[in-house]
Specification:
Blueprint: H1 3-19, H2 26-30, H3 38-44, E1 51-55, H4 61-68, E2 72-77, H5 80-93, E3 98-101, H6 107-111, E4 116-121, H7 132-142, E5 143-154, E6 179-182, E7 197-200, H8 205-214, E8 218-225, E9 227-228, E10 237-239, E11 242-244, E12 255-261
Parallel strand pairs: 1-2, 1-4, 2-3, 4-5
Antiparallel strand pairs: 5-12, 6-7, 8-12, 9-11, 10-11
Length: 266
């Protein structure tokens, strides 16, 4: 199974649907809206004048949001269609940015070893990678001494629960077999996709932390959050631009964020 080509075709199909969707709201972004969550901006800190690489950047909205905050940004994605849209949006916004089409595992060679103060990866990215150890080694190779990795991601724990209530154990947390999905629509809705098959890889929180540590990066924090960006379970309620478990009910970790630093002085 060539997971890379299957997923590339799937994501190429998603690009025009995403660009025209209310979910991504490209026109709103061009007008000044930021897709970055407040906790991301707070945890990453001031990016003015810092070199930031965004791995698996898709159509580049998060990448360009960091550019608006003063970072010198480079985005990388394996979908040429997504990169073309990212370049177009950057031009419309008048934002300086570099976008590269490449496999994430080739990022160090394509973007430059030891060239970045920050490597950023946003929500929904890690499930597309079969090998977190190799990914973390790639991140470490990109970072300058004293630079850091920042991850904002969906927590893996909710993936084992039933979709209706989030109250019943339904899946095996430790199942690491590739998951093949055939879905006619992407998560933004819209028209049917031309290529509907995708391959995803589940990773536990321990898998992520262990891979980062094995690559020589020192974890500064791992924060688990009780909110998410979409209605993961029917019982979640809209709150503060996201979704939470109703007040009074036992809470679950729905997202997490991690920051890990490379050795040496910046």
């Amino acid at each position: 199974m060539d997971y890379m080509e299957i997923n590339r075709a799937n994501w190429n199909s998603r690009v025009p649907v995403h660009v025209g969707s209310d979910f991504y709201d490209v026109e709103g972004f061009v007008a000044g809206r930021s897709p970055l969550r407040s906790f991301e901006r707070a945890e990453v800190g001031d990016v003015s004048g810092r070199r930031l690489a965004h791995l698996q950047c898709h159509i580049g909205l998060d990448t360009l949001a960091w550019a608006r905050l003063g970072a010198e940004v480079t985005g990388l994605d394996f979908s040429a269609a997504a990169v073309a849209q990212a370049e177009s949006i950057a031009a419309r916004c008048g934002l300086p940015a570099r976008f590269v089409t490449a496999d994430v595992y080739d990022a160090a060679e394509k973007l430059g070893r030891g060239a970045y103060d920050i490597v950023y990866t946003g929500v929904g990215a890690l499930v597309w990678l079969p090998d977190l150890t190799r990914w973390a080694q790639t991140v470490a190779a990109l970072l300058k001494p004293g630079g850091f990795l920042y991850i904002a991601e969906f927590h893996p724990f909710p993936d084992i629960l039933d979709e209706a209530t989030g109250a019943t154990l339904k899946h095996d947390y430790f199942d690491r077999e590739p998951q093949v999905w055939v879905e006619p629509h992407t998560y933004t809705g819209g028209e049917e996709l031309e290529h509907q098959t995708s391959v995803q890889f589940l990773h536990g929180l321990g898998d992520v932390v262990s891979a980062v540590g094995a690559a020589g990066l020192r974890v500064e924090f791992l924060h688990e959050h009780d909110f998410t960006l979409f209605q993961r379970f029917a019982t979640l309620e809209a709150a503060d631009g996201g979704y939470r478990i109703p007040d009074g009910a036992p809470r679950l970790p729905l997202m997490y964020s991690l920051r890990a630093c490379a050795a040496g002085a910046p």
